[in-house]
Design goal:
- The chain has 354 residues and is α/β, with parallel strands linked by helices.
- The radius of gyration is 29 Å and the shape is globular.
Length: 354
């Protein structure tokens, strides 16, 4: 081989330099494009860990859990077709752990606790619930302690033992027609749900507990006029909800209920409200008002974020504390205030005529 053939010509060297520069420029261009795309998508760096300065600042500025709804059980003896908190587990925290969580909430600024389910009187025949009610009023001295129940498991002896510690008892009743309640699933066997409602209303009067009624408006009761019955019962508040779909609860493949057939339009809901405009205690809640305006704790004491139309749980307040967990609650405090979530909720301040 000749020596001259082993030495690159000036032309070859120039081509090599141009080729190298082309590769370098292509590489730089590729990196720049990646950075730009990443910046637009927010993916230039991984999500900072929970203990980063940014997240610590978010935790420090966390909202106050003024009013909390604790669904300590998912089990229920009714089968309401539109139920949006279904029996996906049978778990209930041990009493002392539940009390520890409630103390954490009080220390973070909670003023009102509402116990719900499932059916809260089902677990230990209401004794577990009664002990929590007593603890919240006596030990934590919360201004307001309330319960939402279907009423079917409540006995007068519960009022005799725990009534003085309870501010508000809300009973769910969607119709004053027994056949309609049977269609909805708001029933157990052939027992009269309406008769029981009147009985509990009288017990609330006798044992000095503010009486409230909750109704879910749906395709089966949309044409009903409840004015006379509500006026006769005289609740301090009548909460009227528009039937709401929640993926994984009453809608979707993994749901235990199929509530699509119960759903009504905004217009039909407004017509129901207009028909009952003379009822002064009526408090309406459309889907828009309801979806993100509640601080909901599940049976593990995890906040549930409903912003995506499903319930995405935070970590438990028992593990990470209230301030960190509440950052993942999806709670809309402005809507909470707009829907009248803050009201006179202590029976000591209601000045009711017992």
């Amino acid at each position: 081989m000749h020596v001259s053939s082993m030495v690159a010509s000036p032309k070859q060297l120039l081509q090599l330099c141009i080729s190298t520069l082309h590769c370098l420029m292509a590489s730089v261009f590729s990196v720049v494009c990646y950075w730009i795309a990443g910046a637009c998508k927010g993916t230039t760096s991984p999500r900072p860990p929970v203990d980063s300065k940014l997240d610590q600042r978010k935790v420090q500025n966390a909202m106050t859990p003024t009013s909390v709804n604790y669904h300590f059980t998912r089990k229920c003896n009714y089968k309401c077709g539109f139920c949006f908190h279904t029996a996906k587990t049978s778990f209930v925290l041990p009493l002392e752990e539940a009390k520890r969580g409630l103390k954490l909430l009080k220390d973070s600024g909670m003023e009102k606790i509402n116990f719900s389910g499932g059916e809260p009187f089902l677990h230990e025949k209401g004794e577990f619930l009664g002990k929590l009610v007593q603890f919240c009023k006596l030990d934590l001295q919360l201004p307001s302690v309330s319960i939402v129940s279907n009423g079917s498991m409540i006995k007068e002896k519960w009022f005799q033992k725990y009534g003085e510690y309870l501010d508000i008892l809300a009973i769910s009743c969607d119709s004053f027609d027994e056949a309609t309640n049977q269609l909805i699933g708001r029933a157990q066997g052939r027992k009269s749900h309406v008769d029981n409602l009147y009985k509990i209303g009288s017990w609330c009067q006798q044992y000095k507990v503010a009486f409230k009624i909750n109704s879910v408006i749906n395709t089966f009761n949309i044409d009903e006029d409840m004015t006379e019955a509500i006026t006769q019962l005289g609740p301090v508040r009548w909460k009227v909800f528009q039937c709401l779909l929640i993926d994984g609860e009453n809608a979707g493949e993994t749901a235990l209920r199929e509530a699509e057939r119960f759903v009504i339009s905004d217009q039909l809901f407004q017509e129901f409200l207009d028909r009952h405009s003379s009822v002064s205690c009526l408090v309406p809640e459309s889907n828009e008002k309801m979806r993100n305006s509640y601080l909901i704790l599940d049976e593990y004491m995890r906040f549930l974020d409903c912003r995506e139309g499903r319930k995405d749980p935070s970590k438990s307040i028992l593990d990470v504390g209230v301030k960190e967990a509440i950052c993942f609650s999806g709670f809309d405090e402005k809507m909470f205030l707009k829907r009248g979530g803050k009201y006179v909720w202590s029976k000591a301040d209601m000045k009711l005529e017992w």
